[in-house]
Hints:
Structural class: alpha/beta
Distance between the termini: 28 Å
Keywords: GTP-binding, Lipoprotein, Magnesium, Metal-binding, Myristate, Nucleotide-binding, Palmitate, Transducer
GO molecular function, one term: metal ion binding
Radius of gyration: 21 Å
CATH topology of the largest domain: Rossmann fold
CATH architecture of the largest domain: 3-Layer(aba) Sandwich
Pfam family, one: G-alpha
CATH class of the largest domain: Alpha Beta
Shape: globular
Strand content: 5-15%
GO biological process, one term: adenylate cyclase-modulating G protein-coupled receptor signaling pathway
Number of domains: 2
Strand order of the largest sheet: 3-6-7
InterPro entries: Gprotein_alpha_su, GproteinA_insert, P-loop_NTPase
Amino acid sequence: xxxxxxxxxxxxxxxxxxxxxxxxxxxxxxxxxxxxxxxxxxxxxxxxxxxxxxxxxxxxxxxxxxxxxxxxxxxxxxxxxxxxxxxxxxxxxxxxxxxxxxxxxxxxxxxxxxxxxxxxxxxxxxxxxxxxxxxxxxxxxxxxxxxxxxxxxxxxxxxxxxxxxxxxxxxxxxxxxxxxxxxxxxxxxxxxxxxxxxxxxxxxxxxxxxxxxxxxxxxxxxxxxxxxxxxxxxxxxxxxxxxxxxxxxxxxxxxxxxxxxxxxxxxxxxxxxxxxxxxxxxxxxxxxxxxxxxxxxxxxxxx
Length: 303
């Protein structure tokens, strides 16, 4: 929304993403190396020195979250390891383990990201992943209407801090990753992430604080979901689903499960999105606003 409606990011904003982006880059390679051990992929002898140096350095970097620097030698080590046969084999099997969606994007760009004069590009920021903490508020004007959008913490420990602060909200926009259907919830290893998100969605939409709000569900990462279905059928993780691996059919099923949580179905709107594609988000957001306006007009007899 900041890119679409608030003229993007200032240089100061961009600089704040340097550490998270570099952390994403390092974590991506660590996740691939961990996967190699798990699925027993041996590394070429030719990368052993680079591998040894990277593992020592990465271990030292685990506790560092600010002012992260990637030395030239380490940039070269990362490039050597990333391009190696073993890591590329693991990457082809990425649907069988957790890996940041942006791993390839960042590892391909490590020389630029690790540069002394690095300032993130817009696409770098869009690809970056880090948890929201507390609340972040932006205001903007769209279609002659004023919007105040509040981004809240998604973790359980954060939700208690904000859910009681909302009243008279016009629209609740909930984002869930479709591609999380096969991943375990990091806060509860006994359930899938998508199921955990549905439970969170249910507790929120049935809260009295949002009883008058339109409920808009963005099922995000539709592109990753489409690719993952080719390797990991939805029915493998949700046996009650008897449909095919067609992404539209599968996403409709997921959307229907979320819809069951909403008491007033007339106020529920679901869209599939790819957040890294700003044009897609712009189109979907416009569609959501149009639906809500029309619904309000019908409710007042003006439509």
